[in-house]
Amino acid sequence: MYIPKFNEETRLDVLHGLIESQPLATLVTMSASGLFATHLPMVLDRSTTPYGTLRCHISRANTQWRDLTPSIDALAIFSGTQHYITPSWYPEKAEHARVVPTWNYATVHAYGPITIIEDPAWLLAHLNALTTQHEASFSAPWKVADAPADYIASQVKGIVGIELPIRRIEGKWKVSQNKSERTRSAIERGLEDLNTPESLAMRDLVNGKRP
């Protein structure tokens, strides 16, 4: 990923924070026929390897897991806050009009080798971890054990597990760092005036806050 120095985010806790807050990843692998991508929710285990390990599962019917080239690292892309930035917010527009639009965003790219796992016990543990993570905010969280055991066993037969120990991780926060302080302040005001969840989240990033 192309990352100008002023857009680079290297703090591992910040990168992990985006992964955990935006766990739906685009998993990109190389196969004999070219690149293949699947969108998958992932669970991050921070305790393993220097950068952590990603775990997910994929439909057994999805050919990606069979056709990937194991000698080439996979790429998991996590997309965070993003927003269009209009040049109408820039004070320079009224002064000389030499301004153009841009798109602000935060993203993490995680690279590593893939291990395919078909062990039912591993898959069940993974499904429990995934479900626990995403049901935590509900007043009555659903648990895998709430479904009949034979039904869950049949569902597990239809998936395979994927484990990706992160060997390299990159973060890009393109949030108007290359603009002057007065222009950033104007962008913040413009985003705040829109008053949407997306615009307010980007306002916070332009202001220097991190997830």
Description:
With about 210 residues, the protein is an alpha+beta fold. It is about 30% helix and about 30% strand. The protein has 7 helices and 10 strands. Strands 1-10-7-6-2-3 form a 6-stranded antiparallel beta sheet. The protein has a 4-stranded antiparallel beta sheet with strand order 4-5-9-8. Helix 6 runs antiparallel to helix 7.
Entry keywords:
four-stranded antiparallel sheet, elongated, 7 helices, 31% helix, 211 residues, alpha+beta
Brief rundown of the structure:
Helices cover 31% and strands 32% of the residues. It is built from seven helices and ten strands.
Query: The biggest beta sheet, please?
Result: 6 strands, antiparallel
Number of helices: 7
Mean pLDDT: 96
SSE order = EHEEEEHEHEEHHEEHH
Bin the helical content: 25-40%
* Count of beta strands: 10
How large, in whole angstroms, is the Cα Rg? 20 Å
Gap between N and C termini, in Å? 21 Å
Q: Order of strands across the biggest sheet? A: 1-10-7-6-2-3
Shape: elongated
Write the layout of secondary structure elements.
Blueprint: E1 8-9, H1 12-21, E2 24-31, E3 34-41, E4 43-45, E5 53-59, H2 64-67, E6 74-85, H3 92-95, E7 102-112, E8 115-117, H4 120-135, H5 149-156, E9 159-165, E10 168-174, H6 181-194, H7 197-206
Antiparallel strand pairs: 1-10, 2-3, 2-6, 4-5, 5-9, 6-7, 7-10, 8-9
Helix pairs in contact: 6-7
